[in-house]
C-alpha cells in the first residue's frame, strides 16, 4: 500500500511510519520539522520512505502517487509548543487540512484518518468523556488555538465527506507518551523524566490534583492502524486512549520512585483553562475496532525512562 503520513517525523507519527514500513508499505511523509525531528525516522528502511521536508499548507500533492491510506497528524500537540506557535497551529489545522481534503476530493486517497484530540472536550463537565459530548472550550483562552483548530478540522473533514462521499475517520487521541518525544516538548511525562534525570526539581503546574489518563505509544499505534484498516466506518469519530486515570502528583511520584530519586516538587501557576480531569470512555473503540490498550503505566514509564536516559547520555 501507499501510505501518506503528515507529521510523520513527530512523536506519534514516527512510530506509525515505522509500523507501516516494517509491514512492507511505501510510506510518504510530509513534515516541516516545526516540532518533529528527522532523527526519529532516519534509522528506518530508506528505500520505502519518501520524506518531504515541507509545510502541509504549501506542499504540491500532485507529485504523490495514489494513496491508499492517509494519516493527517501534522500539528503541534504539546501545550508549550502550540502556545508558542498559535497561528501556525490554527492555520495548519484549518488551511492545511483544507488542502488535504482538496487532494482527497480529487480521487487521490482511498481512506483518510485525522488525528484529533481530547482537547475538543476542553475542560470537560462530563466525565469520563464519550464521543457524544460537545465539550467545554473557551474560544479565547490560551489553549484555543489548538482546541478550535482541531474542532474546525473535524467539521471541515465531515463536510467534505458529506459533499464528496469520501471515506474519512477521526481519532480523538488522549494523552499519549513514549520514546521519540523531544526533550523540549514540554508535556508532563517527558518533562518529569528529564527533570529527575537531571536531578532538578519537578515542576507541578497548579496543585497537581488535576488528572490525565496516559496511553503508551505502541497501544496508540495499534488503535490508529485498526481505525485506518476497518471496513465501512466512514464518518466515525472514535476516542483512543487509556482510561487509567491519575493525578499529576501521582505521575510525579511514580517517576521519582522508578528512578529512586528524592528531588523536590515545586509548584508553578498553570493556565486558566488547564482541564481539571480527563478520562476517555473507550466503549466505542472496543466495540467498533476491537481495540483496547494493553501496556500498564509503570511498564510504559520504564520504557520511556530508558529512552530518555540514552538520549541525554548517549555514550554512557
Ligand atoms: P509532535 O509535535 O511530536 O508531531 C507533530 C508533527 O507535525 C511534527 O513532526 C511537526 O514538525 C509536524 N508539523 C507541524 N505543523 C506542520 C505543518 N504545517 N506542515 C508539516 N508538518 C507539520 O506531536 P505528536 O504528539 O506526535 O502528535 C501528533 C498528532 O496527534 C497531532 O496532530 C496531535 O494533535 C495529535 N494528538 C497527540 C496527542 C498526544 O498525546 N501525543 C494527543 C492528542 C492528539
Ligand atoms: N504539567 C505539569 N508540569 C509540567 C508539565 C505539565 O504539572 O512540567 C501538567 C499540566 O498543567 C497538565 C498536565 O500536566 O495539567 C498534562 O499536561 P501536558 O502538557 O502533558 O498535556 P495536556 O493534557 O495539558 O495537553
Automatic annotation (TrEMBL):
Any one GO MF term held by the record is: NAD+ binding
BP GO annotations: D-xylose metabolic process; UDP-D-xylose biosynthetic process
All copies of domain NAD-dependent epimerase/dehydratase, residue ranges: 3-241
Cited Pfam families: Epimerase
- Required cofactor(s): NAD(+)
Q: Where does the protein end up?
A: Golgi apparatus membrane; Golgi apparatus, Golgi stack membrane
- Keywords on this record? Decarboxylase, Glycoprotein, Golgi apparatus, Lyase, Membrane, NAD, Signal-anchor, Transmembrane, Transmembrane helix
One GO cellular component term, please give it.
Answer: cytoplasm
Q: Look up the domain of life of the source.
A: Bacteria
| Record has Magnesium as a keyword | no
Q: Note the topology in the membrane.
A: Single-pass type II membrane protein
Entry annotated with the keyword Membrane: yes
The name this protein carries in UniProt is NAD-dependent dehydratase
- Native source species: Candidatus Roizmanbacteria bacterium RIFCSPLOWO2_01_FULL_38_12
Amino acid at each position: 500500500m501507499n501510505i501518506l503520513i503528515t507529521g510523520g517525523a513527530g512523536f506519534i507519527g514516527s512510530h506509525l511510519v515505522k509500523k507501516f514500513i516494517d509491514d512492507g508499505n511505501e510510506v510518504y511523509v510530509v513534515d516541516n520539522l516545526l516540532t518533529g525531528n528527522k532523527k526519529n525516522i532516519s534509522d528506518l528502511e530508506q528505500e520505502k520512505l519518501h520524506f518531504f521536508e515541507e509545510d502541509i499548507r504549501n506542499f504540491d500533492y500532485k507529485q504523490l502517487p495514489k494513496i491508499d491510506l492517509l494519516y493527517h497528524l501534522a500539528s503541534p500537540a504539546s501545550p508549550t509548543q502550540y502556545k508558542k506557535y498559535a497561528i501556525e497551529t490554527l492555520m495548519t489545522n484549518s488551511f492545511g487540512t483544507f488542502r488535504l481534503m482538496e487532494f482527497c476530493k480529487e480521487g487521490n486517497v482511498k481512506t483518510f484518518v485525522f488525528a484529533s484530540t481530547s482537547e475538543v472536550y476542553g475542560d470537560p463537565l462530563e466525565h469520563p468523556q464519550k464521543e457524544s459530548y460537545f465539550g467545554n472550550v473557551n474560544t479565547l483562552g490560551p489553549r484555543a488555538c489548538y482546541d478550535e483548530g482541531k474542532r474546525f478540522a473535524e467539521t471541515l473533514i465531515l463536510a467534505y465527506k458529506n459533499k464528496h462521499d469520501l471515506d474519512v475517520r477521526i481519532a480523538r487521541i488522549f494523552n499519549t507518551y513514549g520514546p521519540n518525544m523531544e526533550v523540549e516538548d514540554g508535556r508532563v511525562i517527558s518533562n518529569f523524566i528529564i527533570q529527575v534525570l537531571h536531578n532538578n526539581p519537578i515542576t507541578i503546574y497548579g496543585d497537581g490534583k488535576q488528572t490525565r489518563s496516559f496511553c503508551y505509544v505502541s497501544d496508540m499505534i495499534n488503535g490508529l492502524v485498526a481505525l485506518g484498516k476497518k471496513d465501512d466506518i466512514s464518518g466515525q469519530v472514535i476516542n483512543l486512549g487509556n482510561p487509567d486515570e491519575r493525578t499529576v502528583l501521582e505521575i510525579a511520584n511514580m517517576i521519582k520512585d522508578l528512578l529512586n530519586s528524592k528531588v523536590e516538587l515545586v509548584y508553578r501557576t498553570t493556565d486558566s483553562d488547564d482541564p481539571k480531569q480527563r478520562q476517555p470512555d473507550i466503549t466505542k473503540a472496543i466495540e467498533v475496532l476491537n481495540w483496547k490498550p494493553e501496556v500498564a503505566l509503570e511498564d510504559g514509564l520504564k520504557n520511556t525512562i530508558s529512552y530518555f536516559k540514552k538520549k541525554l547520555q548517549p555514550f554512557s
